Amino acid sequence: MLALGAMNWVLSGFSAVVGAIFVLGALQFVYFVVSGGIPGTGFYYARRLRDGNSQVRQEAVRELVERGDIFAFGLLVKALEDRDVAIRVTAIEGLGNFRSTLIIEPLLKFLKDRNLIVRLKTIEALGKVPSGDIGPVLLDVLLDSDPRAKLVALRIFKDLRDPAALPSIARLVLDADEQVHNAAVGVLMHYGTESIQHLATLLPDSTDGAKRLVKAMLEIDRAASYEPLKEVFASASDPHVLAETLEALTASGRPGTAEFLLPFLEDPAFPAREGVVEAIPYLRDPVCVMPLCHLLSEHDVRIRRKAATALDMLVTMCRDLEVVDPLCAALLDSDPEIRRYAARALGRIGGRLVQEKVVQALWGEHASAVATFIEGIVGYPMGRMVSFDELLLALDRVMTNQRLTEESLRCVDMLESLMIILHGANVRGQRVDDQTLDLLIKGRRTYYPLRLYDLHPLAAGLLDFVSSKAEGDRWRVSSLV
Q1: How far is CA 111 from CA 117, 137, 161, 184, 225, in A?
Q2: What 8-state DSSP symbol labels residue 131?
Q3: Which of 149, 272, 391, 416 allows an S-S link to 144, with CB 3.0 to 4.6 Å?
Q4: Residue 379 in contact with residue 373, Cβ under 8 Å?
């Protein structure tokens, strides 16, 4: 019994030692695991991510990125709090590879990080999320102070095709950075015609940016921009906006543009009225001629000038001879420039009626006597003296078929006045002075054809106008000596 008891005691002591060794071994194994001694475990990465050496932490994050499983996901989220920018950037890139909505919440705060690289990588990572929910998250990025952040966001929205982003993208067309502007236009073109209305909404208040907005609208779809531009033109008050939209409407060449602009032409209070008068001739629409004629009686001399200039360009397209009377009335305008352009417009119409009206305008109640006087010297009726060649022939007849008296010189004055007004050209030559007049009276016609000095005041002004314009040899006043 005693021996058995001793044996049991020995065995129990041995078991205790073995048990103690086993417990100690187990504790050591647990400590080894918990301390991160086994590669690939959570404890292993947790220890390395807490390491004081940034290179160790960076290497751990890279290993987690390569794993790319759900185990690595949680640890990469923890790595986002690292004090080292490079490590945070690597963790953000790794989370982006998951392409999951799970990364939105942990990455959201980094969209406003002070470090630009962190912001850019966060935008790129969120842009990989295949979900329509990412659009609202990235909208604020389009307001970022750095153009590089806006450019990255624009590339993402180009693929997202999120209609809710269109107002924000449209505003970037006005961005001061040229790259951002070009990128925004490119994205809007990718979205198509639905983006045009968003650009048009910005136009009324755009001031100096109106040119950019209108150009972008036309680049996206010229035809689809027509109606929105009309709406903006009718409602805007800013001169820059009105000028740009008017130019685009005029250049469109769309039928009905003239009819659209005519009410603004007739409205004295419309701020861009002068611009409309200048633009209308380029529409080449005869419906504008009579409204322009009505402007020749306006009180504002600038409007009268622009109307006369426009009529000079447009009048040949109108077959309505009612335009002759207001143009003849403009021959007596106090402004010489208006008189000149009215004369040119009458010359473009031409014909017997215009000749009769011009004679009436030039000499008033003496018109009949003047016509009789000319016919008496020339020898045939005024009705034949309509074209430039016919007037030149009449002048030649005066100069060659009878002695140059004071009456015949006055006749030359009248005929040349008609030539200038009806045809915009005079008989080229040298001004008649005393010596030249003596030579002419004696029959030496070396200076023929001539330009007389003492013309009708309107004709004299027109000669100066023709000379200053110098529109080809026919318009040049020069000596033939």
Answers
A1: 10, 9, 21, 20, 36
A2: S
A3: 149
A4: no
Q: How far apart are CA 24 and CA 21, in angstroms?
A: 5
More confidently predicted of 230 and 356: 230
Q: What angle do CA 308, 338, 251 make, to 5 degrees?
A: 30
Whether residue 351 is predicted with pLDDT greater than 60 in this model: the reply is yes
Q: How far apart are CA 395 and CA 478, in angstroms?
A: 19
The one-letter amino acid code at 70 reads I
165 three-state secondary structure: helix
- CA 70 – CA 90 distance, rounded (Å): 17
83-92 pLDDT, tens digit each? 888 989 999 9
Q: SS3 of 447, please? A: coil
Among 290, 423, 426, which Cα is nearest to 354's?
423
Question: Which amino acid is located at 108 in the chain?
Answer: L
- DSSP readout, 380-395? S-GGG--SHHHHHHHH
Which SS3 state, helix, strand or coil, does residue 451 take? strand
Q: Does 434 have pLDDT greater than 80?
A: no
What pLDDT digit, counting tens, does each position of 220-239 carry?
999 999 999 999 999 998 99
